[in-house]
Structures are given as structure tokens and as C-alpha cells.
Amino acid sequence: MASTESQVIEVALSAVRLSCLAWGPTDGPLVVALHGFPDTAHTWRHLGPHLAGRGHRVVAPFLRGYAPSGLADSYHVGALMSDAVGLYDELGGDERTVLVGHDWGAIAANALGAHPDSPYRRVVALAVPPLGAMAGAPLHLGLRQLRMSWYTLFNQVPLLPERTVDRWLPKLWRDWSRGYDAGEDVALVRAAWPTRAHVHAAVGYYRALRAPWRVPTPYRSWARTLQGVPTVPLLVLHGADDGAMQLGYAEHAARNLPVTARLEVVAGAGHFLQLERPDVVNELITGFIGTR
Questions:
Q1: What is the distance between the alpha carbons of residues 58 and 80, in angstroms, rounded to a whole number?
Q2: Which strands sit side by side in the sheet containing 123-126, from one edge to the other?
Q3: Between β-strands 30-34 and 17-23, what pairing exists: parallel, antiparallel or unpaired?
Q4: Which residues does 147 contact at the CB level (< 8 Å), separation at least 6?
Q5: Is pLDDT of 60 > 70?
Q6: Residue 145 carries which DSSP code?
Q7: Which of 118, 189, 252, 258 has minimal Cβ neighbours within 10 Å of its Cβ?
Q8: Structural element, H or E, at residue 31
Q9: Count of C-beta atoms within a 10 Å radius of residue 187
């Protein structure tokens, strides 16, 4: 049985150094797990040991800009996609390798699932369904989502998010996963944002989307499938009580997905479903990717 204790490994990519938590045997089938905002690699502290105990090698990076990983030149989702591909290459990925993503990690995972040059042949997306599959969603969802997504506009304001982080960070966790005690997770996020430059990097993922024509050249080819729909087998997991993105979007997206994709709704969970209902989420992902 593999150890449930995580290791810390450093992976030097061409554009950034990523510090990663890792679980399981080094020769096991690789699972790369990307966290989202405002979160850290510790969000996989239940899934990592669970899959490791079934023979998988799970590697969860702190995203670029989140300490102890390095700061970087760009925080566009295309850069995050590039990092995921770089991890696949550096960690010796093969045809069994699975990409798991939550929130921003899910956006990157979905976009890679739609990209013809992606090395990943199976994808799991938590809390954010493929953006392209959400097109044409009912108007009433959009009106409510505008209120729920106030932070996306707030993060465009210069300097203010960086200066007020200790006010809005715990609020997002409270609003997005009501009833979940996020004290440990908020502390872990603040540890990953030790300076104002790190907070600037984290909100930079949102700011990068406002000017898609400014995507740095190395990431443009990846970013072109941001609005795509995955063509590889895809498992979408969504909390029934998600306070960041309404379940209705995932249900609408499910009707626009290919037969190789499916949606599973996790009852009693909000946005951070992998932490709120790890028992359910772990088993759903295990059933999708199989055991060694």
C-alpha cells in the first residue's frame, strides 16, 4: 500500500519553477491535479492519498504565482495549459496519464481536452464545465450569475484586491461553500500568497482574460481552444450547492457534451466539493480513471 504522506518535488519548466505535492509510487500511472482560485495544491489532500493507495502517482503543483512555486511572465490560461503539458513531459506521462482540474485548473483541463496537441487522453473537471458547452445557457442563469461573479470585476480594479485580500479571501470561501469550515484552507492560501506580488499574480489570472490579444506568443497556440469542448473522455463534477457557479450551467453544458463525457452532481457540496465530500468525489474519479 502506498504512503498517504505527500512529498514535495520541484519541476523546472522553461518559463517557471513549479513546486508540487506528490503522492504514490513513482512508477504508477500519472495523475496531474491542478487547483484553482483562491486555493492551493493542498486542495488535493484527500484525492492524492486515495489514488496513491490504488497505485497512482498523483502530482499537484502550486500554480504559477502561488508560493512556493515561482512568479511568472503571464497568468493567462494558455500559460497554465502550457504548464500542464510541461508537467506531463517532465514527469514521464504516457497514454494512461489523467489531468484533473478544479476551478481555474478545470478551465485549463477542459481547454486541453479540446486541443489536438494535448498529450492528455482523459480529463476530470470540477466546478467549471467546458466554457464552449455553456453557450446558449438560459438568460435567468446569467442574471443571477452576474451577482455571484462580482469578484471577476473586482479583480480588474488596480491595487484594491491586493490591499484588501484578508477581507475578500475568507468571504469567497464562505460564499462558495456554505457551511464548510475553511479556516485551514484560508490559512494555506495566505501562506501561498506571502507578498503583495503573489496576490497580484493570483488575481492576474482574471486580469489576463480582459486582453486576449496580449497573450504571450508561447501560449497563443494553447489558448485557442479556451472555448472548446473536449473530445477526449471527460468527467464533469459539480457541487449541487456551488456558490461560485450555478449548477444550472453544468446541467446545460451536459446537454452539449459529446457521448464521451458525463456530468455527476455531488449532493451536499458547494464549490470546493473535493474538500466537502471527498468520499464521493474520490470514488467518482477512481471509477472514471480506474486503478493500476
A1: 18
A2: 7-12, 17-23, 57-61, 30-34, 98-102, 123-126, 234-239, 261-266
A3: unpaired
A4: none
A5: yes
A6: H
A7: 258
A8: strand 30-34
A9: 12
Contacts for 27 with CB less than 8 Å, ≥ 6 apart: 57
Contact 243, 109 (CB under 8 A): no
* DSSP structure string for 169-227: HHHHHHHHSTT---HHHHHHHHHH--SHHHHHHHHHHHHHTT-GGG--HHHHHHHTTTT
pTM above 0.70, yes or no: yes
Half-sphere exposure of 116 (CA within 13 A, CB side): 2
Residue 45: CB atoms within 10 A of its CB come to 21
Whether the Cβ atoms of residue 40 and residue 189 lie closer than 8 Å to each other: yes
pLDDT in tens, 77-133: 999 999 999 999 999 999 999 999 999 999 999 999 999 999 999 999 999 999 999
Q: Which three cell numbers stand for residue 160?
A: 484594491
Q: Which residues pair with 266 in a beta bridge?
A: 239
pLDDT (mean) for 266-288:
98
State the chain's mean pLDDT as an integer: 96
Joined together, the cell numbers standing for residue 99 give: 489531468
Query: What's the pLDDT band for 178 if we cut at 50, 70, 90?
Result: very high
Residues 31 and 202: their CA atoms lie apart, in Å, by 24
Q: Where are any strands of DSSP class E within 62-143?
A: 98-102, 123-126
C-alpha cell at 258: 459529446
Q: Measured between alpha carbons, how far apart are the two ends of the chain, in Å?
A: 12
> Average pLDDT of 238-266?
98
